[in-house]
Amino acid sequence: MSKPEEIQAKLLLAIQSNPPNLDDIVSLSTELAKLDPTNQRFYIDAKTLIHLGRDSIKDHSTALLELVKNSYDADATKVDIEIFSETKDMIRVADNGFGMKPEELKNSWLRIGYSGKRVSTKSKLGRRKTGEKGIGRISTDRLGSKLELRTKSKDEKLIGLKVNWDDFDVEGKSLSDIHVQIFEPKEINLPLTDGKPSATGTEILIEEQRQSWTKTNIENLFQELSALTPPFEDVQDFHISLVNDVYPLPSEEINSNYLDAAEIKIEAYYPGTGTEIIYTYWDKYNDKEVIEKIEWSNLLTRTGIDTTNLIENKIRSGSATIKLYFFLRESASVKDFEFNLTKLREFLDNNAGIKIYRDRIVVKPYGFPSSQFGYDWLGLADRKAKDPAGISRSANYSVTPNQLVGAVFIARDSNVELADSAAREGLVESEAFYDLKSLVMGTINMLESYRTRLIPKINEAKRKSRSKESRTERIIKALNSIEKDLYSINLEIQNNSDVASHIKERVQKNVNDLSGTTDKVEKTITELLNWNRTLSGLATIGISSAVFGHETEGSITQLKGSVMAAKLALSRKIPKVDDAIVEIEKAVKSSKRVAAWGAYALTRVQREKRNKKNVNIAKIIQSVVNELEPAYKAASISINTELKDIYTYTFQMDIETVLINLLTNAYTAATLKSGKRLIEVRLIEEDLKEPKKLIENGYSLIVSDSGPGVSKEFEHRLFEPLFSTKVNPTQGSKSIGTGLGLTVVNSIVNDLNGNISFDKDPVLKGARFKIWLPKERKQRN
């Protein structure tokens, strides 16, 4: 047989073998093609893979994101990422997706340029698949030279492959000459699903890393992973965990509540047909949304839009939704929120910019602060620098990029003209891209125009803010008014010859006591305000101040009412001195309640107890109860204690904060029922046990009250931040609680490895909260 016939015979055998020998088929087909005198073929050099993978991907974070996107396409709900550069040389990416069958691994994954995503564009979960070029898998070469892939699909055996990418980095070597090892792994480590290892998924292990990871690399990767799916939409079906040995990650996740602090929110929607864009606005100065429509041609005339590459009657980018949030970065933005200005600015510094999301997956580098060129892809900084006019010059007013958090939402199927660039980062800057960019720029101009229309309302809000009287100012003003009334009452009684001298002395003493109390209260409030500014970071001070503020205003209202009643009793033709004395004694009682709360609050802020040390828990509890007792007695509430001496190594501030919050809740509950008002505090030794097994030595703090207990309908929300059942009985459903007390307690208990439970006290019939905490000893060096 001639050589072509020999190759054909071998090729036929390779095809007929079970399973077909793919390596021989490729090799023999190539050899046969070379013998064709008239029809030749392209031959692929092995280094082509190096150019497609290692050389064409910008950085290692982009390469890793490619693998995460593949997990998203595989319907994974969890992806575990591990990066170890310091302790060992390994990168691991594992997901709980549907995995690959053996034939898919051999016939699809190893086929460069092939992607079933072009045929099947939607996953079983309805996700629009993100990768269609069939080369994303080569991104592993950018991360490291050695790859091991393990995968398990439903009802199929575990299968894997091993690749040494350095084998392809050889001049003149054909791609078909390099073998990839297929093997059957003994195990696969997949993310947990419902507490158990997933039955399906893919695990990728990469060794001999191309580039070491730095602190900045990890921070940037964390930002990119956090924004991979849009935080605006609260995506719940895709979670990523990142563990590394380079730099500890931020513990705080992106908080969507920050978006509520925006001064203006705007949403633009273009349906993909016609030339009309629909705008919806919301701002903090109005109670309703504003909807406008504008023609594309009119939008193009707005300042700042480059119309060089645009067509007035056509939007070539396809349908799009744009959401923008505009922030002031001022203290007024956070006055109604639980976070402070520093936290808001941190959020903006990390998330400012306008990102592009395609099928719910972010398109780098647009809107990422870590990206030198992609962050301000709209040129807003240069635009502002050329004309830095403020809002008062409305014709030239423009926003700065760090004031905006936003997103552009597009889709592959409805934005077919917006294609990926070859480097897997960014979009090809085509006419469609210019249209999209102009649509976003036009939306920013619409936002700026809308804000200038709000100038009268903005100025009015600032004026009201400056003129609005603070709670402290209201209390001090009321106290000064009471002082004047007291002086006139005392003068009238002392000048009344019909009043016996012993009664005059009694009134004089009460008035002097009351006058001295008001001086102390004014001083207390002023000092509290200063301390609260200094210690605003301590949640327990904020909660104590809220309770103190409510009690102070309520008691001063009672105080003022009693003084006025005394004044009226004495102003009659026949003065009712006895009635006046009764009212003055009521006023003295109210003033003592105010003074008691003030003294307690000042005691809290004057002591620093955040050092961990050996302490007697019973002593701490009794000290707090002693400080609170005068304020509780003023409200006819008794506190009974039953405390066992228990010593442990802990933070005194934590124990006090837990107890104060529980007692504060018990105080409010006890005032809601008539009859005897009682709170019980118990401290007992209690070991946490399981059947036939001692888990841990510890103790329990139990606080019970005689209030109405916890309603069934609220039990599931009790530890929810900002949820409060405390209401002012004189003002309908107006809340007097911060909604943070039990959240703080729960957080501290979790930090101390304890647990919290609640039920109905069998004796007092109110709520009973039980805190169990482990005993701890100081470790010797």
Automatic annotation (TrEMBL):
Organism domain of life: Bacteria
UniProt-listed SMART domains: HATPase_c (SM00387)
Reactions listed under catalytic activity: ATP + protein L-histidine = ADP + protein N-phospho-L-histidine
Gene Ontology MF: a single term: ATP binding
Broad class of enzyme this protein falls into: transferase
UniProtKB keywords: ATP-binding, Kinase, Nucleotide-binding, Phosphoprotein, Transferase, Two-component regulatory system
Histidine kinase domain segment(s): 547-777
EC number, UniProt record: 2.7.13.3
InterPro entries: HATPase_C_sf, HATPase_dom, His_kinase_dom, Sig_transdc_His_kin-like_C
Protein name: histidine kinase
